[in-house]
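Section 3.1 - Work completed
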Amino acid sequence: MKISMIVLLGCFTQLAMAQEIPMFIGTYTHAGSQGIYLYMFDQQSGDATMYSSTASEHPSFLARSAKGDMLYAVNETGDSTAALSAFTFDGDILSFVDAMPTGGSYPCHVAVSKRHPLAVVSNYGGGSLSVYRLGENGGLVEKIQHIQQEGTGPDSARQEASHVHSAFFTPDEKHVYVQNLGTDMVTVYRVDKTNNNYRLIEEGHLSTPAGGGPRHLVFDEHGKNSYVLLEMTAKIAHYEKNGENWILVDTISINEDGFEGDNGAAEIKRSADGKFIYATNRGDANTITLFAVDKSGKLERKKVYPTGGEGPRNFNLSPDGRFLLVANQKTNNITVFERNMETGELKDTGKQIEVSTPVCIVF
């Protein structure tokens, strides 16, 4: 009987440990933040426990390696200290490995390939891309490319120059799509490997609606539909692939009908089952919007939710899909929503994580 009890307690302990997973939060460090925060997130209760912090200057966007043993952060500064930093993570401790300059100001996004030893950084201020080769251990080996984009857009205040905002690998990892808010352009690069040397080679581009300012995008699992989030107009531009060409199917607002005020669309993500898409809007809205995706890929706006704070930036879904967490930059809090797996609908749990200027959440 005692042995059975010991085994049972051991099972409960393992289950409790499995429920808790690491969650990294990137911040701006001008208002007292230390840098990167590691929390343990309970996927059963939605509770989050502060575990540790790691010093890093303005780590505004984070990405984990496919194995999860590396964490990468852009250091979003406007001078020569702008960099990509790499950290090891052993499941317990986050340790700094190295950093390399981006060669462009205000880097705001990093994408890490699951298939190739590559990381791509978007330099918003410099309007450029920095491409890095990663070592077998995940460390930064060298910067192999610096791609400068040029151009302007119709909004003379926001689109006076090139502003590269993000880069995403396609589901098959053969291409990288780069969003430029300043030029209303999505540029398509092919990932080329010749004699074990990698380069991004430009293959084409998509023109997005004028004055929209493309910020981020998501693909469906087959790469047949893409959804570009337009920051300045708070709309999603839905494209469908026809042969080698992308056709603009529709644009849909992430705001409620009749909304009047300033926009600042920030993040777009797709649920793992592909049935739902979510997008945040800052400005005067401070909302996150749920869209249903039908079999053809068309979006239907279902519901708009207040985010429980101001300046909702990045958000993320827990790996099991049961929770969605939104980083409210201006009010120093992360709101924890419970998510209905069948309908995609969100319910505010009332649980808040207090963090100084949170802007990125990564599991």
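Second construct:
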Amino acid sequence: MSNGSTGDRSRDMARVENELLARWPESRLEPSLTRINALVDLLGSPHRAMPVIQVAGTNGKTTTARMIDELLRGFGLRVGRFTSPHLESVRERIVLDGEPVGAERFVEVYEDIAPYVQMVDAAGEHPLSFFEVTVGMAYALFADAPVDVAVIEVGMGGTWDATNVADARVAVVTPVALDHSEYLGPDVPTIAGEKAGIIKADAIAVLARQEPGALDALVRRAVEVEAVVAREGTEFGVLERTVAVGGQQVRLQGLGGEYEEVFLPLFGAHQAQNAATALAAVEAFLGAGAATGPIEQETVRAAFASVRSPGRLERVRTSPSVLIDAAHNPAGMAATVAALRESFDFTRLVGVVGAVHGKDVAGMLAALEEVCAELVVTQNSSPRAIPADELGALAVEIFGADRVSVSPRLSEAVTEAIELAEAGPDNALGGSGVLVTGSVVTAGEARTLFARNRP
């Protein structure tokens, strides 16, 4: 590796990214823990060097993991966090002390584990995937740091997800819905059964509110492995919430008692639900409960007030407002639409949508049709991206031809949407807005686009 000029670091980082991207992508799976187990064994079992809080579910995983991280650091713990996918930089996946790992350290860790990766590749039927290598890097970096606790978001599913080589002390499951059905199962209970695989013996399972069939599958697994269960709506939950400037004010029921006057700078009932789930997970990790009372309330308030969730109804422009949201399935889009209606008073909203194959795009578009006056259909850079013309044809079936336009380049699509928002019949500039959504890739590319225009 280079000795550290900015140009050298950039070249090294680009080389590592290219080598990672040459591996199997996250969209190509061969369900097995064989390869990742072989890698962490060769690395000296770094996944067992620290306690783990693991987060599975369909929607809300990344934000919940961010909240858990913020809370734990508020209590003075050193935290490593692994999430996926990333919005703009692969380094976002591996976070230490609240910040993405630097390019130089990212490259160092990659090069440290590369010989062992090659050994696993040579010995197996299939090489390690992009995701498996980044998981190995995260565990290795967190063990070396060292951290007091690792907050690990599952990539997909649970049982055979590469992150699941660890045995989590606290296993968190956010709401389960239909997504990745080709890999996880045809219905919500089956998918929940797959995600339940993160619940291990003697763990504490923190379960967000679920559909009945999903809850049954999760509790059944907890009973089988003799894990303790905490359920939203029973042991913890949202007691009250009101819309506030820049977010919402919430009152939460935790495992140890009530937490009042908590400001959350995020929008929507789903984010309050994520906050309650994150709080219960941290209480469980710290050993709080009915017998001990709440953990320190001012620390909790300060941590939640500091939470940020990029790409989740994130405002990146004003007049007209441009919001970016990474919703990529119907359940996530329904939550986004509900939050828009509750927290934003748009007289005219124009949607920009870029989506990928393998998703229920019609379900997402149907949810958006309720709030978007017009829709600009575009295409992101994912290999699985739905061509703009194909997506446009689907959108016309739901919105009608007079409300849909097609603009394959994202930058041009956003510009067109801003012009459409400004050109509303009432010309109410302050009440017009643009929502860019449909895929994590679309959200990430939109953030990059607007970042270029920031001071």
